[in-house]
Amino acid sequence: MPRTLVKDLAAHIGERVTVYGWINTARLQRKMQFIVLRDHTGMVQVTNKRTEPPSDVEEALESTSIESAVKISGTVLANPVVKLGGLELVPDSVEVVNAAVAPLPINEQTGIDQRLEWRFLDLRNPARHLIFDVQTTVEEAMREFAYGEGATELHTPKFMGTASESGAEVFKVKYFDRFAYLAQSPQLYKQMAVSGGIDKVFEIGPVFRAEPSFTSRHATEFISIDVELAWIDGVEDVMSFEERMLARVLAAVAEKHGDAIRELLGVEVVVPELPFPRIAMREAIELLTAQGWKPEKNKGDLDPEGERSLSALVRERHGREFVFITDFPASVRPFYHMRHADDPTLTHSFDLLWKGIEITTGAQREHRYDVLVKQAEEKGVDTGPLASYLTSFRYGTPPHGGLGAGLSRILMVMLGLDSIRESTFLFRGPTRLEP
Amino acid sequence: MPRTLVKDLAAHIGERVTVYGWINTARLQRKMQFIVLRDHTGMVQVTNKRTEPPSDVEEALESTSIESAVKISGTVLANPVVKLGGLELVPDSVEVVNAAVAPLPINEQTGIDQRLEWRFLDLRNPARHLIFDVQTTVEEAMREFAYGEGATELHTPKFMGTASESGAEVFKVKYFDRFAYLAQSPQLYKQMAVSGGIDKVFEIGPVFRAEPSFTSRHATEFISIDVELAWIDGVEDVMSFEERMLARVLAAVAEKHGDAIRELLGVEVVVPELPFPRIAMREAIELLTAQGWKPEKNKGDLDPEGERSLSALVRERHGREFVFITDFPASVRPFYHMRHADDPTLTHSFDLLWKGIEITTGAQREHRYDVLVKQAEEKGVDTGPLASYLTSFRYGTPPHGGLGAGLSRILMVMLGLDSIRESTFLFRGPTRLEP
């Protein structure tokens, strides 16, 4: 018999159906057996009355372990007493497709590290499963938006011939008789695509950072959302692209998963108003300093505590979850960020904070070869390994700008999760390469 | 003035507009200047009459090098004599945004290796640019199809803790105080997702193969399209998914780019009939042997020449571009392919050939732990590094199957290109890590 999804059962009351899924719980009483079957769309109660002698169904339900994969056929009945959708399945056939070993190695009380060891079992929890349903919707909405803006989907190489952007944090790979390096971001390549006449570049793909960092926001491998827009009039075009994209994403998530997110994760998805507030870094620091904040390092930048405080302040004063910080000092930005024409100590750049967490860095790029080389030299950057990148600016590169955002961070903030370990399918950190 | 795209100029006849783009060609005559400006949507002739003394526009057009980035404002006139869409732009302002160095390092006669050195300039050629417009449409259509089937978009890790699938061809990465390995395919991880209750897995992402191979079909890094479907009734479900997805893709490409592909690449995009023909490997070998084909190695498999011959035969006899080869011998398939219940020498597997090239490998997977371990041992696979993969089959893994396909190969075949070097943004091979 063809499969009926649990979410569709209400349309089959009085009919015989077959559901496929896992045994979520079993309550075996003296006269009755109550099983909850779970598939990726929901849960249904299976209610079986014991008989004398016991039926095959009774024996199968009695002996099958939790999390075994089963196909159960039976009749769908309306039963207002049942919590799961007011219906139950009265089984006439149970097929154990693949039995699970008992006992299970994790349960509701297991901590995150042990859960990650058993990630495939961990993901069977509907609240965890939901994260990846939401991820799918997030990416779908982002791409729909980007395609609508005329973007080209590009896949930039992850192998680089030189450790060009910042040697210190790059993974090194034995590559036949030489070495390759894993891309920390598609930065150089997406700019090369703009030089190649691709009008708007869009990529969602992995990047690699050899940082021995153990915070809730860092990973050695993560999925970066990258955008690069040609022929912009200024960095405002990039911020506008991003805020409209995120508004589209949040509208799609709220519509498709808003109820489930509220129920399973206790979080309200808010579709943001546009435009997001914009605060220049200088003003942000003044506001925070007035509150008593003292930056520890990186004069002219915010530390994570500063980011949290600024977001809290914006939320308090304006009721907004998002805020762009703009006009970062050149001293804390890479050489390729374009500087203000009237004040070369400032850049046409931004970060986007969401509920206290930085989720994006963006900027207009310097597209004039001479200026770019000068800025690299001023920063003490070794331009040797950058030769092919720099050369691409000598043949009519248009003005452009772009952004990079972390997918797992966006999901973490959106869904109120503790760590990107929760919003990554299989997390990779300095001490985690398994499973 | 806001930008008008070249493709939209016909709607602005008699109006003043500004176009942004590159100087494609310049024909400077005694009385007239004819410039062709190119953006990512097309080309337009800019026609300027010389004056005495010369205007600023005339001087700018005279001196600006080919491939410089410019903004040109002027009036759109209908002119049936002009080949480019029967219109021309009479300029009143030319802004050179970023001048190109002359002479250009590549031209129409440059060979592929040198073109790849200057890939960003190479991509300004509209025929090359078109490849990535098509790529965008291909991915969009694939995802629309996959989402419609209920698939979850997943990103599997590229860092693996062990070189599990096949040690020989895996790239090794220095990973803090140990080593990591780059994933050759998401195989193990997408199966783990199925064990985790993800009903249908979909991923488009990079994979890495340390093969010193220099054919037109191989790269050390390429984009793999991966699908894994839970609760299948058999491998036919996987083939059905793929053929319906490809039919959707080709319909979208034909509709959106069919004319441009015909004009720029001389190829006709054919939307295939469903279902594709299916030929069991045994029958394929009989057919080819009858034609005089002698397999060089891999008894029970086809070499590239065999694949070309079989495709030619199917095209000749049935007029079809695609053919599934099914039921490969277990001897030439990995241990995790499910075997026939009534003949363990055969697997429930397939390759898909398109115009003589293998673009996909797929199979139903063995989901029963005991059988899987037995098959691994029979093949002499070291099960130690596979421990966490194998363990995931002990907790109720449902029947499942999937496929892996190469994006660049699909584009190469679809667009009649000589090599995946042409259908990859920045190709990576054993001797190519730049640009």
TrEMBL record, chains A, B:
Amino acids binding ATP: 209-211, 358, 406-409
Residue ranges the record marks as coiled coil: none
Segments of this protein annotated with the region Aspartate: 187-190
GO cellular component, one term: aminoacyl-tRNA synthetase multienzyme complex
GO MF terms, alphabetically ordered: aspartate-tRNA ligase activity; ATP binding; RNA binding
Catalytic reactions of this protein: tRNA(Asp) + L-aspartate + ATP = L-aspartyl-tRNA(Asp) + AMP + diphosphate
Enzyme class, broadest EC rank: ligase
KW Nucleotide-binding (keyword) present: yes
EC number(s) stated in the UniProt entry for this protein: 6.1.1.12
Aminoacyl-transfer RNA synthetases class-II family profile domain mapped to chain residues: 132-435
PROSITE patterns registered for this protein in UniProt: AA_TRNA_LIGASE_II (PS50862)
Xref: SUPFAM superfamilies: Class II aaRS and biotin synthetases, Nucleic acid-binding proteins
Major localisation: cytoplasm
UniProtKB keywords: Aminoacyl-tRNA synthetase, ATP-binding, Cytoplasm, Ligase, Nucleotide-binding, Protein biosynthesis
Annotated positions binding L-aspartate: 165, 209, 361, 365
Record's keyword annotation contains Protein biosynthesis: yes
GO biological process: aspartyl-tRNA aminoacylation
Annotated compartments: Cytoplasm
Cited function: Catalyzes the attachment of L-aspartate to tRNA(Asp) in a two-step reaction: L-aspartate is first activated by ATP to form Asp-AMP and then transferred to the acceptor end of tRNA(Asp).
Subunit (UniProt): Homodimer.
Family designation: Belongs to the class-II aminoacyl-tRNA synthetase family. Type 2 subfamily.
PANTHER family in the cross-refs: ASPARTATE--TRNA LIGASE, CYTOPLASMIC (PTHR43450:SF1), ASPARTYL-TRNA SYNTHETASE (PTHR43450)
Annotated protein name in UniProt: Aspartate--tRNA ligase
